[in-house]
């Protein structure tokens, strides 16, 4: 079973996701320049929402970092081990996993580990304290693990702990461990880049700052600069392979249902943080639709190949109308998705001739219907 999520969200002037020059990200779609928010920025915002709003218990979240030597060392120190030896033991433990470390005790790339996996590594390092401490003292931690039979046995035991830790965000977004490909996890969730439903052009904010201690008889600003921004109504699309999600969570159907619920709430509230102190673009979605279906997947981005154009009706209402019309075109051509469960909410009173039957009153109604449908088919 698949769960699809379609969102229309209009943002006031903002620069939510910048490129390497500081400009808002854009792309060309349908021959027109569009505003864009990368899928990475959206996924990061969703993961932050898991944490900020405590949508998932801390032990069922994951950590992405290069600083696991420090994290593991802190865990060992909290268990009463000598603080001056903890970092060396943590390095020795990671060396058993064949994870390369840079000279600053950071891993060479970002690792993505479930909180439960980190706890298991800490517990393993504590249980093997004498062996790992001796290895660290002999400066073997910098070498690859598995040099002898004992090391191979330890490495196998430690690697078996890396099963994803039933972390909800890790189960959704997957991971790749370059040094441990056998511990990679296939993502259950796909997230598209958000694109504006209309053509967009950027503008520049010219700003000045004045020194509070400047003498009153001195004219002029003490700092000047520019910030590029735009305003856009975005179409956002994501889907979840519900079977893959359940497998990633060790077959725990109840946890999978909780993860779906958390994902939907987080997707509603998640907004990238770029330049928010300057623009405070905290705009809620104007349209959210979920589709739970046995197979197939339809991004509705092509509803906006011909860009929506502003009029008295407004860019949001016209975007909702365009999406409804495209759904009607797809179902007329290919037939309505067999066995699908739809639910949607929309602000305003835009007409939905093709999707009216799916409309519910509140987000909570949408949430309950979607989670029930997903749990029934996962």
Write the layout of secondary structure elements.
Elements (H helix, E strand, L loop, with lengths): L1 E13 L11 E4 L2 E6 L1 H14 L9 E4 L2 H11 L4 H14 L14 E4 H13 L1 H9 L11 H11 L8 H6 L15 E3 L2 E3 L6 E7 L13 E19 H7 L4 H17 L6 H4 L7 E7 L21 H20 L6 E6 L16 H15 L1
Antiparallel strand pairs: 1-9, 1-10, 2-3, 3-7, 4-5, 6-9, 7-9, 8-9, 10-11
Beta-strand percent range: 15-25%
Major sheet: size, sense and barrel closure?
9 strands, antiparallel
Q: List the uncertain runs.
A: 140-146
Distance between the termini: 6 Å
Structural class: alpha+beta
User: Can you give the mean pLDDT?
Assistant: 92
Q: Count every helix, treating DSSP H or I runs of 4 or more residues as helices.
A: 12
The rough form would be described as flat
| Radius of gyration of CA atoms, rounded to a whole number | 25 Å
Describe the structure concisely for a colleague.
The protein is an alpha+beta fold and 378 residues long.
């Amino acid at each position: 079973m698949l769960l699809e999520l379609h969102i229309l969200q209009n943002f006031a002037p903002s620069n939510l996701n910048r490129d390497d020059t500081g400009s808002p990200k854009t792309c060309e779609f349908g021959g027109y320049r569009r505003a864009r928010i990368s899928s990475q920025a959206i996924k990061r915002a969703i993961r932050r929402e898991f944490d900020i709003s405590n949508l998932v218990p801390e032990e069922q979240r994951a950590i992405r970092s290069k600083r696991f030597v420090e994290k593991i060392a802190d865990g060992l120190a909290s268990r009463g081990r000598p603080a001056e030896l903890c970092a060396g033991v943590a390095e020795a433990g990671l060396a058993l996993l064949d994870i390369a470390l840079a000279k600053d005790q950071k891993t060479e790339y970002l690792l993505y580990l479930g909180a439960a996996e980190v706890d298991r590594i800490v517990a393993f390092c504590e249980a093997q304290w004498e062996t790992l401490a001796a290895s660290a003292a002999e400066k073997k931690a910098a070498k690859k693990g598995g040099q002898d039979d004992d090391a191979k046995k330890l490495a196998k035991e430690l690697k078996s702990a890396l099963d994803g830790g039933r972390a909800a965000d890790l189960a959704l977004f997957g991971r790749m461990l370059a040094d441990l490909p056998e511990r990679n996890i296939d993502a259950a969730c796909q997230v598209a880049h958000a694109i504006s439903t209309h053509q967009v052009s950027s503008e520049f904010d010219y700003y000045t700052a004045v020194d509070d201690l400047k003498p009153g008889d001195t004219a002029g600003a003490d700092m000047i600069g520019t910030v590029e921004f735009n305003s856009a109504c975005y179409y956002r699309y994501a889907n979840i392979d519900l079977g893959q999600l359940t497998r990633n969570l060790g077959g725990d159907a109840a946890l999978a249902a909780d993860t779906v619920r958390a994902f939907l709430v987080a997707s509603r509230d998640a907004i990238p943080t770029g330049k928010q102190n300057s623009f405070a673009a905290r705009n809620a979605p104007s349209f959210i639709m979920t589709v739970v279906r046995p197979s197939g997947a339809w991004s509705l981005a092509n509803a906006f190949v011909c860009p929506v154009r502003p009029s008295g009706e407004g860019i949001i209402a016209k975007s909702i109308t365009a999406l409804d019309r495209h759904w009607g075109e797809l179902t007329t051509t290919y037939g309505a998705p067999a066995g699908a469960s739809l639910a949607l909410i929309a602000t305003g009173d835009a007409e939905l001739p093709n999707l009216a039957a799916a409309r519910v009153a509140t987000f909570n109604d949408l949430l309950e219907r979607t989670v029930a449908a997903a749990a029934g088919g996962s």
